[in-house]
């Protein structure tokens, strides 16, 4: 499962993007509809954008595959993706059906002033599904192998010329159907919920040099796979130099 505009192999389809403004709001809508060229894989992979960066730091010095409590997580640069296996397959684990992919993304931006300070608000929502039949839009029912919904809200308040107060809130839901692997104990497929909240400061120390302070709280659990959970805090201090 990929974002609109992201390239992948063994796929054909089309994408549409549109931008427009409504008073102080700027909108960008993205739509993707695609299918496999050949049904050669019985797996689906998807990301966790809400807490993916923090989760990738669990494995600081490498890029391991098949990690996590159920061995289905793979770390890539500054992110993590998860693999789910299909069960509507042949005795030799070959998929019976081609997979069809739908993605709808909504990006909204808003600018205003609070106490005479510039405030910028940015929302990104993504609604994706994978299923074994063609659909014009994202499938929101259990007919889909997998459904993934992501909501991310960011707010930036410019306190001074050199200091910006940044805030973030994210929520994700991933739901699979019974044509995917189930837990041996609960007898249910994936049902995942993740949250992320963060606040911090962006400080311009000099031209081309910035100090970035972040405090994040995160929580994630799968009601069907009880060992697949984490929660906690992350504090980061970064100095970036641009030249």
Description:
This protein is 2% helix and 58% strand. It is an all-beta fold and 243 residues long. The strands form two sheets. It has a nine-stranded antiparallel sheet with strand order 1-2-6-7-8-9-10-11-12, with no helix packed on it. Strands 3-5-4 form a three-stranded antiparallel sheet. β1 (11-22) and β2 (25-36) form a beta hairpin. The longest helix has 5 residues, at 52-56.
Draw up the topology in text:
Blueprint: E1 11-22, E2 25-36, E3 43-47, H1 52-56, E4 73-76, E5 79-85, E6 100-114, E7 117-131, E8 146-158, E9 163-176, E10 191-206, E11 209-222, E12 229-241
Antiparallel strand pairs: 1-2, 2-6, 3-5, 4-5, 6-7, 7-8, 8-9, 9-10, 10-11, 11-12
């Amino acid at each position: 499962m990929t974002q609109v505009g992201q390239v992948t192999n063994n796929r054909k389809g089309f994408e549409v993007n549109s931008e427009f403004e409504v008073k102080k709001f700027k909108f960008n809508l993205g739509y993707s509809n695609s299918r496999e060229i050949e049904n050669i894989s019985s797996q689906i992979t998807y990301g966790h954008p809400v807490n993916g960066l923090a989760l990738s730091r669990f494995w600081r010095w490498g890029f391991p595959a098949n990690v996590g409590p159920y061995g289905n997580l793979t770390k890539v640069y500054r992110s993590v993706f998860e693999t789910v296996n299909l069960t509507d397959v042949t005795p030799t684990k070959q998929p019976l059906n081609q997979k069809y992919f739908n993605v709808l993304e909504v990006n909204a931006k808003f600018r205003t002033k609070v106490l005479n300070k510039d405030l910028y608000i940015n929302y990104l929502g993504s609604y994706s599904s994978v299923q074994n039949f063609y659909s014009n839009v994202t499938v929101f029912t259990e007919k889909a192998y997998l459904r993934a919904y992501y909501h991310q809200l960011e707010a930036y308040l410019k306190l001074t010329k050199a200091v910006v107060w940044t805030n973030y809130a994210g929520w994700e839901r991933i739901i699979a159907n019974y044509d995917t692997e189930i837990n041996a104990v609960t007898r249910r497929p994936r049902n995942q919920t993740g949250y992320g909240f963060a606040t911090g400061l962006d400080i311009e120390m000099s031209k081309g040099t910035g100090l970035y302070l972040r405090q994040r709280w995160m929580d994630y659990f799968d009601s069907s796979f009880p060992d697949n959970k984490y929660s906690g805090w992350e504090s980061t201090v970064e100095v970036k130099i641009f030249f």
